[in-house]
Amino acid sequence: MKQIVAVLGHPIGHTMSPVMHNAAFEALGIDAEYLAFDVLPERLGEAIEGARALGFVGLNITIPHKVAALQYCEPDPLAASIGAVNTLVFGDEVKGYNTDATGAMEALRRAKVRVGGKEVLVMGAGGAARAIAHALVHEGARVVVANRTKQRAVELCEALGRATGTGFDELPALVQSCDVLINATSVGMRGESLVRGEWLHEGQVVFDIVYNPPETPLLKAARSAGAKTIDGVAMLVHQGAKAFELWFGVEPPVDVMERAVRRALAEG
Ligand code: ATR
Q1: Does domain 102-231 have CATH number 3.40.50.720?
Q2: What is the pTM of this model?
Q3: CA 41, CA 73: separation in Å to the nearest integer?
């Protein structure tokens, strides 16, 4: 019988996850299908239970459900300390994981960027920023979190213990002095950027988690300034690959997944 996996989010319209995972199923000859469902926040628990009752292998959980989904699973230590899950695996119990953190670190590793001892500026203090900042601290980076709403950055850093939270007042100086800049906000999807090109310089690494468009205004400015760039497709693919491994116990072909996503994005 066909195995089913799905992503639950709200809204869910433009997710690339089905294209990415279905390409991996085809390449590996696994008889499975990845679906996407728009689920209202107040029905998240029912949707998870329903998917489990129907025999789904597992789920991805995306915006805005990543924190709420914690109450419907047994999170592993990483997901518990981040305070959000994006992957559920069904078995005797519902296990919860957060592959955003590992996906972001894998994207950095593949680009041969070491963050240990480096000054890393994370813009944003939402769910994605939380997972990334957590992993960075774990890898020994010196982390600064800057967020439009300063209080959220301060609270995130208090929870992390070893990071500095701030608002956007000093953003130009912080961008100029960091070794690695990570945009973990949603800014960039509609042609905007929080960063001016003249704040960036050669020798820096700029990583944007926004994947549509693959080259955001931030990455374009970074490329012009001579900085190394990493796009959001890399993170999407590696968080997806990690989830795939948790569901099926095999490493999926990340190159096939990446090509499928890039083709779908190019086709619009
Ligand atoms: P996610 O789970 O994807 O991180 P989120 O929890 O809604 O989503 O967080 C969105 C992040 O993008 C927040 O850091 C948000 O800043 P605020 O905390 O001030 O809301 C940031 N963000 C969204 N739109 C923004 C904008 N126009 N300018 C600056 N920051 C923005």
Answers
A1: yes
A2: 0.94
A3: 16
Output the residue whose Cα is nearest ligand 1's atom 25.
Answer: 187
Residues with beta carbon inside 6 Å of ligand 1?
Answer: 63, 124-129, 147-149, 152, 185-187, 194
**Ligand 1 atom, smallest distance to 128 CA:** 4
**Residue with CA at minimum distance from ligand 1 atom 12:** 185
Are 3-97+234-267 and 102-231 the same fold in CATH? yes
pLDDT tens, residue by residue, 254-266: 999 999 999 999 9
CA of 37 to the centre of ligand 1 (A): 23
Substitution site in 122, 185, 190, 211 for ligand 1 pocket (most atoms within 8 Å of beta carbon)? 185
Tell me which fold the domain 3-97+234-267 belongs to: Rossmann fold (3.40.50)
Tens-digit pLDDT profile for residues 117-157: 999 999 999 989 999 999 999 999 999 999 999 999 999 99
How far apart CA 145 and CA 105 sit, in angstroms, is 17
- Boundaries of every domain in the chain: 3-97+234-267, 102-231
